[in-house]
Amino acid sequence: MPSLPVSRRTVLRASAAGAAGLVAGPGALAPAAPAVPAAASPAFVDSYRTNLVANLTAETNAALRILSGFGRVWSTGAAWNSGTVLDRAFLRANIRYVVKATTHRTDAEAARAFLVDRRHQSYSVTAGLGPLAELYRAGALAVTGVTAAPDTTPATTISDAVPTGAPAGSAIGAGSPTSPLGRVVTLVNTVRGGYSSGNPAKLAFQYPRPWRLTVDSEVVDTGRVDDLGYPVYDSEVVVAPALLRQRGTAPADDGGYVSGHSNALFLAALAYAYAVPERFQELVTCAYDLAHTRIVAGMHSPADVIGGRVLATALAAAILRDPENATLKAEARAQALAYFQSRVGADVHGFAHSGADEYADREHNARHVRHRHTYDLPTHGRRVPVTVPAGAEVLLETRLPYLDGEQRREVLRTTASGSGHPVLDGPEQWGRLNLFAAADGYGAFDATVAVTLDAARGGFHAADAWRNDIGGRGGLVKLGSGALTLSGDNSYRGGTTLAGGTLTAAARTALGDGDVTVSGGTLRLAAGGVRVRRDYRQSGGTLAVTADPRGRAALVIDGDATLGRDATLSVTVAPGGRHAYDAPVPVLTARRLRGRFARVVVATPGHRAELVSYRDTVAVRLRTA
C-alpha cells in the first residue's frame, strides 16, 4: 500500500495479505516473509545479540522473532501510515483503553507520568526498593535532575541530568560504577546494554503511537500543525500537556510497538531484583506500575507496554545467563547483601518490608499485576500448553536459590498465564511468564517436589513462603533445617511429607488433598485450624498448634490419624484465653485415632498441659503453672 498524501484519511482495513508479517523497515519497505517458527531458530538467550537496528527482520533479529505474535493483529505497510489491521477487536480495545485512561486521568497522574517519561528509568525503578531505596541511592550515588512536573507545556525538551549540588561522583540512572554499590550499578547498566534496545522493534513493526490513531484504527493527519509546530492528528487520545513537546516528530522513526520506556523499566527492575531479591515482587510490581504511566500519558497503548515487558523479560534472562556476566551477577548480589546488612543488620528481608512504602501491600500489588499483565485485551484461539523459554530460570536464581534450575522452570511453567493472547503467545512464549506469581512458588505439583532449605545459609535458604494456590497430582517433601510456609488454598493430591525443619500451614487447606506424614521437624498450624483431607501419620517430629478457647480443633483429619512413640505435641495458649480452658481443649480430631503423642509441651510461659485422648480426639487440659 503506498504512502498517502498529508491530510488524507488512511483507513487500516484488514486483508488476507496482511498476514505477511514483518517488513525490513524504513528503506526496505517490501513485505517480508512470515516470522520464522521457533523450532527453526536458535533460542533467544543464545542469539539475543542480534537485536540491533541493522537487523530488522524476524530472520535476522531474535527479538523481532519472539515479538512476532504482534503480527497476528497488525501487518506493517509500505509506510508508517499504511499498515493493516488484522484483528480489529483487539486493536480497537487497545486504543479505547488509552482514550479512557487519558480522558479520565487526574492532574497528579499526569504529573507522575511526566516524571517517569523524563527521568532515567533505572533511577525511577529504585522506588521498588521501598525502605531500602534511600540507602541504595546514597550508596550508589544515584541521583535525578527531574524532581517536579511543570504546570504547562515546557518551552523545550527536558532530559535528566545530575543536579547542581549533588555529591561528588553522583550519576543519573542506577548510579556510579565506582560507588560502594558499583557492581550492582554495573549489572543494571549491563542488562540495559547495547543489545537491549526496543528501537529495532519500533522500526520494524511501524505501529503508530496511540495519539496518531483513532479508536477505529485510522491514521488521520489533518494537515495542520499546533502551536508547538507538531502535526495535528484527529485522535481521541489526549497526551499529557507537559509531554506535548517531548513527543517525536518523525512518525517512521517513532513507532509505538514496543514501548521503549517499558522495556527499560523492566530491564532495570529485573536487574535490581536479581541483586536485591528481598524486594523481588515489589520491584516487578514497580515496573508494571511505572510502565502503566506510558498509557496514562497517552504515549503508548497497552499492547506497546506489554511488548516492552516481553522484550525485557527475554533480554534480562539472556544477559543474566550469558557466561560473560556470571562473575558480575554474583558480585552484584554479594555486594548488595553485604552493603544492606552493614546498615540494617542481618535480616535484610525484614527491614525491606518494615515500612509503609507504596508497594508494601502485596494483595494490592497482585491485583494490579494481574490486570496489567494482559490489560484484559481480547483473547482467542486454541489452548496451547506452556513452554518455558530456554534460560528463563535464571530470573529466579536469587529469589528461589534453594531450588535447582529444573525446579525453577517448573515454577515458571505452573505460574504462567493462559494462552490465547496474541502478543503473549509469540515464539518461545516469553510473554506468558508471570514473575510476580513465580516469586510465590509453585502453582502446581505435577510430580513430587522435594525441597531442601538450610537455616545456616540465611536469607531465602533459611525461610520462604509459597503463597500460590497449588494444585496438581504430585506432592511435597520438605527436607532440611529451614522453614517453608504454605498459605494458598491448595488442592495438590500427592500428599505432604515433613522430614526436617519447619513447615507452616498458614491456611486451612494449605496441606492439599492428600495424606500428611511427619517424620521429623515441626509442622506448625495456622491459628484458625487446618484440615487434612486424607490420613495423618506422625512417627516423630512436632505438631505445633494454638489451643482455641472456643473448642475448635486445630487439626481436623478426614481420614485416620496414626501417632508414633516419638511424636511430640506443642501447644500455644491463645492470648486472652486464660480463663476459658476449664474443660479439655481438642487439638486434633480424626475419623479414627491410633496411638498417642509421646509428650506434650506448652510453648506459652506460665502454663502446663496434660494430654487427654478419647475415641477420635486428642485434647489437652491446660493449667496455670
Automatic annotation (TrEMBL):
Superkingdom of source: Bacteria
Name of protein: Autotransporter-associated beta strand protein
Domain Phosphatidic acid phosphatase type 2/haloperoxidase: 185-320
Signal peptide: 1-19
Keyword list, A-Z: Signal
